[in-house]
């Protein structure tokens, strides 16, 4: 009955279907993404390019080039992705992007298996898909005006931020829990710490992770009712690729003579690119499902395909939308800027940036809120900033919370990992002000102050001076003087009373972290005196060493 | 008959006897069970009743630490001091004065070394245990004593992994394939120390102590502003967990209690680099004095007294915690007759 040659061929086609190869690629790049998160740890990083996903992101390179005028460090790598896109179209979305893979996976899992009828409706092109181009224009103009906000919605940044602050801690919890369970039964569980994203530390905290997690779950969960809503409707990176699509060399082309209008190609179309009627080149994710599904082989992936009435190569974006979104961006910029939280005249005392961070305005031109620095920080001092303490413009940028941790003296990991130079690459020598940097002195994050109303020796005649003990500078920036005093019971006690030497304080916050007066600490660091800004200097002496 | 069955099948409100009894049985069983669990007196088996609200309070289940001490050989001294130009020479001299390390560590023993890795410092600042002496000690344990396993553990003030790497101890541990136990949330359990008041029941870095036979403290000699000197006994502070920074309000008391908290096999004090000032963090090579001395022994109080007097050079006005430790039974300050100094 059956032709053996034909069955062989179909089995071959079953295994080497294009979409199988695509799934392998997606799993590979998703694993690579997880690996880069896992490797972003002080004992593992060892110079591996753990931020390459962000550095190869053309949207980040382009917008940060718009806002700063330069292409920082490895951001030039994004040219690779641009070249691939120019050759093959938006392959990034369906072959490499970890967020896209996640969307596709969630849709695949949650899809009602028996009903495929509504796929025809859901996967058709919808007018609202133009919105991503509007977002792209808004973020580009914001960047050009000097506020790099693209990280709010750039898929790779969203992915890193959400995984760092919500998914990785959740996985750590799973590993910890299973290790505890196994050790109950007497198994050796020390190998488990190797799996954890942040091994051998106390439970890591990420303030504001609830909101980040909620947004992430929304983006992922909405696939259940609307497949790849984020990719089709919101993703500005996809929009950038869409803008480039008219120039791609190879694209899907339809032989309308062979087409029987069966609409089989539409059923699994990832991008909503309407392959069944007028194919929208800019929406196509090049997932190549339609090529597999077409029973007539009417669709081909073709070099220099001719442009006819069956294809729309450019995005659905008109001049009016561009003008309106530019206006919108301009006003958004002014709202963001004048909602001032940290400027020359209104310096925020709690907005303490990591060592190597550029001056606030420069920082906002660079930081994409990917929170990679927060991931790699070994002491957990870096936290995503919230609306309240940092304002809308600064949301999820790295902020130092010295109640949680301190800035370790010989650590420059956050500056090492920053893809965009918001935290400039510094050496440990530069941070400590040793060697060649001895002229400029150490990098100061702020200055510590005493709350003498809460400090045990000052307020209650109880010996303490943990702050002095842990102060890491040499000579110590917190010193003590002996004083004999009567305590509340009338006993004479000899106390060591701590005081700050502001010349020596580098604002590392170790005193604040270790202060036993919990809640509102009796010694605390504020941003005044930070090296990065001439406007927030405290001492005339330090002011002189900085150039105006 | 036929109409009856169809009635009971079609109309869910119309129960037949069998299903009614079944449902009645299930409902009665569940409610009796719930009633028993919730209302049975508290001493009955499986009762979950908690009338006073005290039963649900978390119960402290402290553990006791073994006594790791080994009696010294009859003719050996209790404290050995070794001077010399190389670390190995100093260490061997000190250990031989107390009877040789082979007397204390038997083949197959699991040995835990507790170095002082409190800070993220380079080894030449003298703020942490030097990698050289750790290397020599591991060599002695693994090759001379044929110890079954050697572990290293500390709960540093700064990020643990970084502290071990930058003090150079991680490299030594890797060289000999020795396990470093870093503190994670699962590592701590409440330790009961009889006779102590502040740390009678306190969170303790428990995990590295599982199955351990011998414990060696490998401390440095450091200046300390609040308690004058951070020596062999203060080193055990690094095993405490919880809010240990509260102890500075009564630092002498807590250090003296550390001397009875853990009864270590040996205490080794490395006087190769002595941090004379600006302790316990250091950070300036000018504060470090090269002492070319190693002290080892079984009496931590006497070791600290000798080191305070001779290495830090601060005379016999010993820190208060040594007297308290003597009173609590941690050891004896008077070291004169019990010391063997090998030049």
What distinguishing features does this structure have?
heterodimer; A: 548 residues; mainly alpha; two-stranded antiparallel ribbon; two-stranded parallel sheet; 10 strands; elongated; disordered N terminus; B: 343 residues; alpha/beta; 9-stranded mixed β-sheet; 10 helices; 20% strand
Topology:
The complex is a heterodimer of chains A (548) and B (343).
Chain A: H1 4-15, H2 18-39, H3 52-55, H4 58-68, H5 78-88, H6 91-96, H7 98-110, H8 119-122, H9 131-145, H10 155-184, H11 192-195, H12 209-221, H13 229-234, H14 236-244, E1 250-254, H15 264-267, E2 279-280, H16 289-293, E3 299-303, E4 311-312, H17 319-338, H18 360-366, H19 372-376, E5 382-384, H20 387-390, E6 398-400, H21 413-417, H22 428-432, E7 447-450, H23 456-460, H24 466-470, E8 478-486, E9 492-500, H25 510-514, E10 523-526, H26 540-545
Parallel strand pairs in A: 2-4
Antiparallel strand pairs in A: 1-3, 5-6, 7-10, 8-9
Chain B: H1 2-10, H2 17-39, E1 79-83, H3 87-97, H4 101-104, E2 110-115, H5 131-144, E3 149-153, H6 160-166, H7 169-175, E4 179-181, E5 188-192, E6 201-205, E7 214-224, E8 228-230, H8 251-261, E9 266-275, E10 288-297, H9 300-310, H10 320-328, E11 339-342
Parallel strand pairs in B: 1-11, 2-3, 2-7, 3-4, 7-9
Antiparallel strand pairs in B: 1-10, 5-6, 7-8, 9-10
Helix pairs in contact in B: 5-7, 8-10
């Amino acid at each position: 009955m059956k032709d053996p040659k034909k069955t062989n061929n179909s089995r071959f086609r079953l295994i080497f279907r294009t979409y199988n190869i695509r799934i392998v690629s997606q799993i590979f790049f998703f694993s690579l993404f997880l690996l880069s998160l896992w490797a972003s740890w002080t004992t593992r990083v060892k110079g591996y390019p753990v931020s390459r996903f962000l550095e190869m992101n053309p949207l980040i390179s382009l917008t940060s080039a718009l806002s700063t005028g330069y292409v920082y460090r490895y951001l030039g790598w994004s040219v690779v992705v641009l070249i691939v896109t120019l050759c093959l179209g938006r392959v990034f979305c369906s072959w490499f992007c970890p967020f896209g893979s996640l969307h596709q996976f969630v849709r695949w899992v949650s899809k009602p298996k028996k009903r495929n009828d509504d796929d025809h409706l859901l996967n058709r092109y919808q007018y609202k898909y133009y919105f991503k181009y509007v977002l792209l224009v808004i973020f580009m103009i914001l960047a050009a005006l000097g506020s790099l906000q693209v990280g709010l919605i750039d898929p790779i940044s969203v992915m890193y931020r959400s995984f760092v602050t919500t998914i990785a801690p959740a996985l750590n919890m799973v590993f910890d829990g299973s290790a505890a369970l196994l050790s109950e039964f007497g198994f050796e569980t020390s190998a488990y710490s190797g799996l954890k994203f942040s091994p051998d530390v106390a439970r890591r905290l990420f303030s504001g992770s609830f909101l980040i997690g909620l947004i992430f779950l929304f983006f992922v969960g909405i696939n259940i009712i609307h497949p790849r809503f984020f990719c089709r409707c919101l993703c500005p990176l996809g929009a950038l690729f869409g803008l480039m699509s008219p120039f791609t060399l190879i694209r899907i082309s339809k032989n309308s003579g062979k087409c029987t209008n069966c609409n089989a190609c539409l059923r699994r179309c990832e991008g909503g690119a309407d392959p069944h009627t007028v194919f929208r080149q800019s929406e196509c994710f090049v997932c190549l499902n339609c090529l597999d599904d077409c029973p007539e082989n009417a669709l081909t992936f073709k070099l220099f395909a001719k442009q006819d009435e069956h294809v729309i190569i450019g995005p659905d974006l008109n001049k009016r939308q561009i003008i309106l979104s530019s206006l919108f961006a301009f006003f958004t910029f002014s709202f963001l800027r004048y909602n001032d939280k940290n400027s020359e005249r209104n310096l925020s005392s709690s907005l303490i940036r990591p060592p190597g961070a550029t001056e606030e305005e420069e920082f906002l031109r660079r930081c994409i809120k990917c929170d990679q620095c927060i991931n790699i920080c070994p002491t957990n001092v870096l936290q995503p900033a919230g609306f309240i303490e940092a304002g809308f413009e600064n949301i999820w940028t790295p902020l130092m919370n010295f109640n949680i941790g301190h800035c370790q003296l010989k650590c420059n990991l956050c500056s090492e990992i920053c893809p965009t130079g918001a935290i400039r690459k510094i050496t440990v020598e530069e941070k400590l002000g040793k060697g060649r940097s001895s002229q400029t002195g150490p990098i100061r994050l702020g200055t510590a102050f005493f709350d003498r109303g809460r400090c045990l020796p000052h307020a209650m005649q109880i010996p303490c001076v943990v702050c002095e003990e842990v102060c890491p500078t040499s000579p110590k920036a917190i010193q003590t003087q002996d004083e004999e005093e009567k305590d509340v019971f009338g006993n004479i006690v000899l106390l060591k009373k701590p005081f700050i030497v502001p010349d020596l304080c580098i604002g590392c916050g170790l005193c604040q972290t270790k202060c036993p007066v919990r809640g509102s600490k009796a010694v605390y660091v504020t941003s005044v005196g930070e090296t990065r800004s001439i406007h927030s200097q405290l001492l005339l002496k330090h002011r002189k060493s900085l150039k105006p | 008959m036929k109409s009856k069955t169809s009635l009971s099948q079609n109309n869910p409100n119309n129960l037949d006897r069998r299903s009614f009894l079944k449902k009645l049985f299930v409902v009665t069983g569940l409610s009796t069970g719930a009633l028993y669990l919730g209302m049975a007196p508290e001493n009955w088996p499986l009762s979950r009743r908690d009338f006073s609200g005290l039963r649900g309070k978390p119960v402290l289940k402290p553990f006791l630490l073994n006594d790791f001490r080994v009696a010294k050989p009859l003719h050996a001294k209790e404290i050995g001091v070794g001077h010399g130009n190389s670390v190995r020479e100093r260490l061997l001299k000190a250990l031989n004065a107390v009877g040789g390390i082979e007397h204390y560590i038997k083949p197959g023993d699991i040995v835990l070394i507790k170095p002082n890795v409190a800070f993220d410092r380079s080894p030449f600042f003298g703020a942490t245990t030097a990698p050289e002496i750790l290397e020599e000690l591991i060599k002695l344990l693994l090759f001379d004593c044929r110890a079954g396993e050697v572990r290293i553990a500390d709960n540093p003030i700064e990020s643990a992994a970084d502290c071990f790497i930058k003090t150079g101890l991680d490299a030594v541990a890797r060289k000999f394939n020795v396990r470093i136990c870093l503190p994670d949330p699962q590592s701590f359990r409440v330790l009961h120390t009889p006779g102590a008041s502040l740390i009678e029941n306190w969170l303790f870095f428990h995990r590295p102590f599982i199955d351990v036979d011998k414990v060696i403290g490998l401390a440095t000699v450091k200046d300390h502003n609040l308690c004058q000197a951070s020596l062999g006994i203060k080193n055990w502070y690094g095993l405490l967990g919880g809010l240990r920074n509260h102890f500075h309000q009564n630092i002498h008391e807590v250090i003296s209690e550390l001397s009875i908290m853990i009864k270590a096999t040996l205490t080794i004090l490395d006087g190769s680099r002595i941090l004379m000032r600006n302790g316990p963090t250091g950070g300036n090579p000018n504060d470090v004095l090269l002492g070319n001395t190693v002290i080892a022994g079984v009496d931590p109080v006497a070791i600290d007294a000798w080191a305070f007097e001779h290495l830090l050079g601060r005379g016999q006005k010993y820190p208060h915690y040594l007297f308290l430790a003597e009173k609590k039974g941690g050891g004896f300050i008077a070291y004169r007759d019990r010391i063997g100094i090998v030049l």
